[in-house]
Amino acid sequence: MPVDNEWYHDLGDAWWDPEGVVGPLHEINPVRVEYFCGVLGDLTGQRLLEIGCGGGLMAEEYAKRGASVTAVDRSAASIVIATRHARESGLKIDYAPSVGERLPFANCSFDAVLSADTLEHVDDVDLVVSEAARVLRPGGRFVYDTVNRTWKSRLLLVWLPQNVFHIAPPDTHEYARFIKPDDLQTVMARHGLQNCETRGLALKRNPIAAGISFARTRKLGGFQLGDDTSMSYVGYAEKAA
Predict the structure, then answer these.
(1) CA angle, corner 51, sides to 41 and 179, nearest 5?
(2) Would you give the DSSP letter of residue 239?
(3) Domain extents in the chain
(4) CA distances (Å), 100 to each of 43, 145, 175, 183, in order?
(5) In what order do the strands lie in the sheet with 93-97?
(6) Neighbour-count burial of 2, counting CB atoms closer than 10 A to its CB (0-12 exposed, 13-18 middle, 19+ buried)
(7) Which of the pair, 113 or 24, is modelled with greater confidence?
C-alpha cells in the first residue's frame, strides 16, 4: 500500500498548532534544528535549500538565524500556509511548490541542502539525492533526517501511532519506504556526497509511556540525539570540492 501524502494538503493552519495532528513535529524539530544548525555553523548569508518544507516550521528557524532560505514542497497548499506565516512573522523565505525529484534550480546554487522527515515519503530517493547533489555547490553539505527500516521503526512509527494510539492518520508512513543508513550512504556516494556523520534520534520516554502521554496531554515527552539509530537518524554528507 502506498504512503498517503495527500493529507498534508489539508492541514492548513494545523501546521502551526503544537497541540494538533502535527504536534509531534513541534516536539522533534528543536532537536533537528539544533543538529542541522550545529553542522552548518554560522548561517548568516548561507544559501540554504530545504526539500520537503511542509508548513515552514524548520525553514523559519534557519531564516531567523540569518540564512538566505529557499524551500520547496510538493503540496502547494502547504506552501501557501508557509508563505503566509513567514510574511506574518516578518521573515523573507523563498517558497515554491516543487518535488525533490525535479528541483527548479541551477547547478551549484546552494551552500547547503536540508531534508527532514522527507526521504521516507518520496517516490525516488536516488533521484532526490541526485538533485540535491546537483544544486549543491562543491564543498557544500547535505543534511538529512529520515527513518531507519527496522522492526522497531515499524512498531513505533507505523503500527503504534497509526493503528493503536491514532497519533498519525493511516498510511502516513509505509514501512517499505524507510531507509537503512548504509543504503542511504550508498545512494549519496553514487552522487558525489560523502557521508560524514550519522546519529540516532529517539524518544526520551519509553514508547508506550510516550503514546499514553500523547493520548492524555498531546505531548510525547520530547526527543534526543544519541547512538541508537534503530528508529530515526540524522546526519550530513559533503559534496566533493
Answers:
(1) 95
(2) E
(3) 6-147+179-199+234-239
(4) 23, 15, 20, 18
(5) 93-97, 68-73, 47-51, 110-116, 136-147, 232-239, 193-203, 223-226
(6) exposed
(7) 113
CB distance 97 to 75 below 8 Å? yes
1 pLDDT tier (thresholds 50, 70, 90): very low
Measured distance CA(107)–CA(151) in Å, rounded = 38
Q: Are 44 and 211 in contact (CB under 8 A)?
A: no
Q: Select from 52, 65, 58 the least CA-distant residue to 132.
A: 52
Give the pLDDT of residue 221. 64
For residue 56, CA distances in Å to 16, 50, 130 come to 9, 9, 23
- Spell out the CATH class of 6-147+179-199+234-239: alpha beta
Please state the pTM of the whole predicted model: 0.89
- The answer to whether the CB of 86 falls within 8 A of the CB of 93 is yes
